[in-house]
Amino acid sequence: MTEPARILVVGGGYVGMYTALRLQRQLSAELRAGTAEIVVVTPEPYMTYQPFLPEAAAGSISPRHVVVPLRRVLDRCRVVIGEVRSVDHAKRTATLITLATEEEGTGSVEMTYDELVIAPGSVSRTLPVPGLADHGIGFKTVEEAIGLRNHVIEQMDIASSTRDPAIRDAALTFVFVGGGYAGVEALAELEDMARYTARYYHNIKPEDLRWVLVEASDRILPEVGEDMGRYAIRELRGRNIDVRLETRLESCEDRVAVLSDGTRLPTRTVVWTAGVKPAPVLAATDLPLNERGRLRCTPQLAVDGAEHAWAAGDAAAVPDVTSEEPGKECAPNAQHAVRQAKVLAENVAASLRGQPLKEYAHAYVGSVASLGLHKGVAHVYGRKLKGYPAWFMHRAYHLSRVPTFNRKARVLAEWTLSGLFKREIVSLGSLEHPRAEFELAAAPPPGDGDKPQS
């Protein structure tokens, strides 16, 4: 009996999930006949819809509705919770670790494949800023988003109860580094949430909170265009948010954020959203990379010069065939990733069947960004929108893009309920340390160790 053709999908994010989802439809006959199998290797058993992270942090959406369970959606795929450490495409093998290999202590295992779809996504791009590793907070995962929400409310609790003015000022100062989507939307949503929460503190007013956005370039939200970027700055500054352009974070040691303009900000909160870089696994392959560490790809989403290897999304440098500018590549964003995944899956299926491949071609239609509840900016199909219309478009667009009808219905229900009732202002910080209470209860009372045994 011949072995089934194995398609190995590395990563369960946008590209990984959508590619596998499309493949299990395209190859339904082969999967039923046992002549093909799809294996998805991913560190987490869910796909995170990252555009909803700011709203999850603000409490507008439940964290469980921001993620899509892969086993439910990819019911005809084999989902392996683990991490690919290296790929030897010449031998068609991937080296990976799983939860089981760690428990067994057997080290990594090798998996062979016939077709490789490499879509591990990206990781936060950090710089050697003193103190950043110790005090910085990221904003790429649902855990980080909820942790940041808990942290902000916890700082307000500290400020409300302390008698030390220095501790109070540091607790109520929030510094966000990076003026792209993640930084601006996270800051805007959390500022909205914190301003609302302040009404329930007897000694904290909204104007006591200090929000600072630090951006190294001369503009924010470059995707929505220069005019809408300037409007976003005016909107944020109108809410007493301190927007610092052409400024860098030099240090955040000893809970003091030192900026390149000489400003020193005592703070207990530094949120780092200053860009992303390709996942480290790309450097541990024998596949060709460009100068930015992304896989060189053809317009058909095949890895250039490597047969039976495919890539898309953050990991791939895909030529933009719709651009008149020579050498232009598709932006590594969700708009391209979802569409690339569809073409990639069709091309993998076509490759297995010996059929011709399609080129990926999609002209960028524009961008939308939220600036908090009922506020936003958009530049779509050449039209510029701001305020409520842009915010509504932002929600409508992302509701249409979040995977599965189940998630769409749940998110819409939550938005409807949040419009009828007051915001939730609960901090569940103990979720990050679930055994702390039990460990305290199980610990022997102080001094017990000195008593003689009976």
From TrEMBL:
It is an enzyme of class 1 (oxidoreductase). It holds the Pfam family Pyr_redox_2. It comes from the Bacteria. Gene3D superfamilies: 3.50.50.100. InterPro entries: FAD/NAD-bd_sf, FAD/NAD-binding_dom, NDH-2. SUPFAM superfamilies: FAD/NAD(P)-binding domain (SSF51905). One of its GO terms (molecular function) is NADH dehydrogenase activity. This is NADH dehydrogenase. It comes from Streptomyces nymphaeiformis.
